[in-house]
Amino acid sequence: VLQRSVGGFCVLSASPIRDKGSKWYASEKMYPHRKYPGYCSGTGYVTSMFVTRRVFEISKHLPFFHLEDIFVGLCINKLGYTFTRIGGFSTNFIPISCSYKQSIITSHGVSPKQMRQAWDLKC
Fold first, then answer.
1. I need a surface site. Which of 47, 67, 100, 121 has the fewest CB within 10 A?
2. How far is 100 from 94, CA to CA, in rounded Å?
């Protein structure tokens, strides 16, 4: 399924953030387009080694972009590959629980202490 795809919490259309105070700021000079191409959130994504190698090779020929998930998305788009939305990848904070441990692969804002709590949770 992921032979020519990347999977995770994938976004197919998003606008660059032009607010200089944002962690995800991208100036018009850095990225002049109105929309980003598809990408999967940098919280985590999965793919095949075939795609990984191709992304590595094509990345040498694209201009650097500071947001890793967008840059990988630019590479995937250049290669003509696709994005696959996979459940369990989240960009929000999700409270630690047995449901979390059994169904969540990634989430934002989880501290090292909370990661240990999730790991040690007996369900």
1. 121
2. 7
Query: Residues with Cβ < 8 Å from 76, sequence gap 6 or more?
Result: 6, 37, 38, 39, 51, 55, 82, 83
What tokens were used for 20?
């200089």
Do 71 and 107 share a structural domain?
no
Burial class (CB in 10 A: 0-12, 13-18, 19+), 68: exposed
Are 60 and 113 within one domain?
A: no
| pLDDT higher than threshold 80 for residue 1 | no
Angstrom distance (rounded) from CA 7 to CA 112: 25
pTM, to two decimals? 0.86
Q: Domain residues for 120?
A: 90-123
Report pLDDT digits (tens) over 53-93.
999 999 999 999 999 999 999 999 999 999 999 999 988 88
Q: Are residues 24 and 59 in the same domain?
A: yes
